[in-house]
């Protein structure tokens, strides 16, 4: 039989096939091959009546996330709060870099808008990102049509109201939520496992909250590709390997000076590039000491 893993818990994999969910385990040979089944995997499996099934083969994946461990994703709803915690454009760009690198379509949802005295600043930020090509949602009504016929993963820093949003989308899930710690300015980790749920004509996944985000972009070329507006401009740079920092005839810097490139995004690009270079230097020093 063939199906999709919709939940992984305590060594068991719950596989959905023909509107039926089967409890399975992975065969031992997966461990020998260094393979691990993940939520979202399409698999071949065996299932006998009144007995535990076994996963026999894992189909090829179109994409994957390491943290959380989930695969074959169509889009990611990135939840950013307008307040408590304050909107963090740097963190949003980290999420976007990860998703661009993984070829996962981002959809940005802004929570806690009711806590703002004015939406003017948020509207200006929204307009900037939409000019790049990203879609923003301010309400549940805006978001729900985008979920149909897609596998959507919900991502967000701890405390932005991710579980609260998912409970509004599907109250029957009754996901655990946690209050914000006023002392620390962040929320407690409340989500326990990754699962796929069928709602609003699609499948959605809740994922553990983040207090920080690790992404897998580790070179200037991939970082360049992960900023759509910089990637587009870079085709006109004099040097193919231009990092848009010091090189002459750089189309990105020219666009910045002309006001055609958003300074905030360029600054975040430079910060991420610096972090990549620092990690490389640290790695080189570590290797030399061995």
UniProtKB/TrEMBL annotation:
InterPro entries: G_CP_dom (IPR030378), NA-bd_OB-fold (IPR012340), P-loop_NTPase (IPR027417), Ribosome_biogen_GTPase_RsgA (IPR004881), RsgA_GTPase_dom (IPR010914), RsgA_N (IPR031944)
Residue sites binding GTP per the record: 111-114, 156-164
PROSITE patterns: ENGC_GTPASE, G_CP
Cellular component, GO, one term: cytoplasm
Places the protein is found: Cytoplasm
EC id: 3.6.1.-
Cofactor binding annotation: Binds 1 zinc ion per subunit.
A Pfam family matched in the record: RsgA_N
Residue span(s) of domain EngC GTPase: 71-211
Keyword Metal-binding: yes
Cofactor(s) of this protein: Zn(2+)
Binding site for Zn(2+): 237, 242, 244, 250
Keywords, comma-separated and alphabetical: Cytoplasm, GTP-binding, Hydrolase, Metal-binding, Nucleotide-binding, Ribosome biogenesis, RNA-binding, rRNA-binding, Zinc
Top class in the EC scheme: hydrolase
Stretches assigned to the CP-type G domain: 62-213
Function according to Swiss-Prot or TrEMBL: One of several proteins that assist in the late maturation steps of the functional core of the 30S ribosomal subunit. Helps release RbfA from mature subunits. May play a role in the assembly of ribosomal proteins into the subunit. Circularly permuted GTPase that catalyzes slow GTP hydrolysis, GTPase activity is stimulated by the 30S ribosomal subunit.
Record's subunit section: Monomer. Associates with 30S ribosomal subunit, binds 16S rRNA.
Protein family (similarity comment): Belongs to the TRAFAC class YlqF/YawG GTPase family. RsgA subfamily.
NCBIfam families linked to this entry: ribosome small subunit-dependent GTPase A
Name under which the protein is recorded: Small ribosomal subunit biogenesis GTPase RsgA
